[in-house]
Amino acid sequence: MQEKGTISIHTENIFPIIKKFLYSDNEIFLRELVSNAVDATQKIKRLATLGQYTGELGDTAVEVSFDAEKKTITISDRGLGMTAEEIKKYINQVAFSGAEEFVEKFKDAKDANEIIGKFGLGFYSAFMVADTVEINTLSYQEGAESAKWTCDGSTSFEITEGTRQERGTEITLHINKDSEEFLDKWKLQGILDKYAKFLPVPIKFGTKTESIEDGVDEKDEKKWKSVEVDNFINTTAPIWTKSPSDLTDEDYLKFYKELYPMSEDPLFWIHLNVDYPFNLTGVLYFPKVKNEFELQRNKIKLYSRQVFITDEVKDIVPEFLMLLHGVIDSPDIPLNVSRSFLQADGNVKKINSYITKKVADKLGELYKKDRKAYEEKWDDIGLFVKYGMISEDKFYEKGKDFALLKNTTGEYFTIEEYQSKVKPTQTDKNDQAVILYATDLEKQDGFIQSANNKGYDVLVMNSPIDSHFIQNLESKLEKTQLKRVDADVAEKLIQKDETYANLLTEDQSKEVKEIFDKAINNKTYTVEVEGLSPEELPVTITMEEFMRRMKEMAATGGGGMGFYGSLPDAYKVAINGNHPAVDKVLKAATEEEKIKIAKQSFDLALLSQGLLTGKDLTAFVKRSVELL
User: Which positions in this protein are listed as binding ATP (predicted)?
Assistant: First the structure.
């Protein structure tokens, strides 16, 4: 048997296109060829189950080997094999895949779709690294003859009589000069570990050394010896392919460590398993997120029938769920011909919505089942939940029932509970509830204490996205405003009908303002003399809530906030006209003395917020010593 011909394609330039554009990463040639071998193996197993093949299956492991001297890589399987006619049909006609015919033939068979490869041009990825590719194959069909196909990367091919004696296919790649890096054991091992770690058919690659027990010595201690054993790359039945009822917590934790060896144990996990209206399995883990969410991305791995595809899953998983870790496996996620890029379609959107719902349901279940345990986890998962509520309205609707707010005394409340708590004391004269929050408990301690002294409660909002979460809450909650506790003096954080009168005359207030303006001598600070409680500080420095919040959002990447981020800081200096220190300023003998006292009061206010540094701090310390 001998035949020569040309591959049925519509352009002479197909191979350069394949090499340069079709596949984004040349290492995936091994993924494609091993995946095809697995498909062929699963098909023969399925035919045997259906009674369409009655021969012995034998060892069905797929074997990968290489010969550095001959510069070859070989992928061998004991799957369906092909006849010469099938080679011409499935290999030479580039755009045709045998999967459709197989589906049609066994469309009524249970789970048939799970074993159909949708790999299209996957075989031709071999020419990314090889000058010549050989297929040596023997079909499972009774009376079939072995056939060999050879192609040198042009559109010409040759089919001759093959040498294979057992069912299956052997593909040999003669590696080109530019790709000799792949003729390395550790390079190939790394690629197989990446893409084939969970394939459903055993993948063998050379041997490895293991220590086995070899009796005991004279002291009755175990003896060990080293032996060479077959090196199997993969776990053929990873936990996401199993029923949750058959798994223990230890199984989930062990699998997590297998995926992320250096990570802390996850907080909890969700086992995904749905077969309608799409097929999806997987396990998503909730890591200890805390404040490092930017470093936690791209930890979800996407598989298709246990073949690793990518860890870039942003088209499938909502943005906020990119903080999770784990595995998603779906044959229904459409991929381009190289399976390296996702295509958005209806199924992807359905999967996206399903995962969002499952995550929300799991969090709601944990909250209802054991609130105390949920509160203990909140500091780790709060960032994730808030991120979800900001970015997905559907998640917000569910999340508002299990999102927690934490106050400065360590108590936790749902949003509704907290609204009820503060309404009696923190409603202003316009019947608007005012929720106070702090971002730095140490730096804002004085403001927190002033608020507490007035009977106000203060929340802790110190995560990287809380400035955005605050905006989100204000847009969702009716007649509610959030203010940072240092946005104004305590008297004015929540505007009430009752106010303190300024005991200074108009002329005295004007004089005090002029003295402080001279003492401060900085246009960044706007001085105002106000009537406040004598118990408040003589000078309080604040940044107006709106401007500070816009600057914070700009700093964390808030869309459209860049303008505010470029503006200089601007502070309000509130002078308490009812404080004895202000009276002392007015009664000082000379203008120099007045400015000195004013400067000392202002620097104290700066010091309380950590704004006094460098030479100004040194001068303050020296001045304080002189005043003792």
Answer: 32, 36, 77, 82, 97-98, 169, 339
CA 204/CA 77 separation, integer angstroms: 10
Written as one letter, the residue type at 66 is F
Token reading at 586 = 């007015």
Is 505:475 a contact under the CB 8 Å cutoff? no
pLDDT digits (tens, 9 = 90+) for 121-177: 578 888 889 999 999 999 999 999 999 999 987 778 899 999 999 999 999 999 999
Mean pLDDT of 350-378: 91
Q: Are 485 and 512 within one domain?
A: no
- By residue range, what is the domain housing residue 533? 506-627
Phi then psi for 333, rounded to 5 degrees? -80, 115
* 212 within domain boundaries: no
Among the listed residues 66, 83, 86, the one whose alpha carbon sits nearest the alpha carbon of residue 130 = 66
98 is in an annotated binding site: yes
Let me know whether 446 and 526 are in one domain: no
Please check if 176 is assigned to a binding site: no
As a dihedral over the C-alpha atoms of residue 83, residue 84, residue 85, residue 87, rounded to 10 degrees, the angle is 90
**Dist CA 50 CA 52 (whole Å):** 5
Work out the angle between the directed axes of helices 506-520 and 580-587 (0-180°, nearest 10): 90
CATH number of the CATH domain containing 445: 3.40.50.11260
| 305 known member of a binding site | no
The response to whether 388 counts as a known ligand-binding position is: no
Q: For residue 253, what pLDDT band results from cuts at 50, 70 and 90?
A: very high
Give the span between the Cα atoms of 595 and 601, in whole angstroms: 10
Please state, in angstroms and rounded to a whole number, the distance separating the CA atoms of residues 308 and 259. Answer: 12
Q: Is 97 annotated as a binding residue?
A: yes
CA dist 57 → 53, 60, 108, 196 (Å): 9, 7, 23, 22
Find the helix packing angle between 346-369 and 371-391, rounded to 10°: 150
Please name the residues in contact with 448: beta carbons below 8 A apart, sequence gap of 6 or more.
Answer: 408, 438, 441, 458, 485
Is 32 marked as a binding-site residue?
yes
Handedness of CA 581, 540, 571, 603 (dihedral sign): positive
Residues 512 and 486 grouped into a single domain: no
Are 270 and 284 in contact by the 8 Å Cβ rule? The answer is: yes
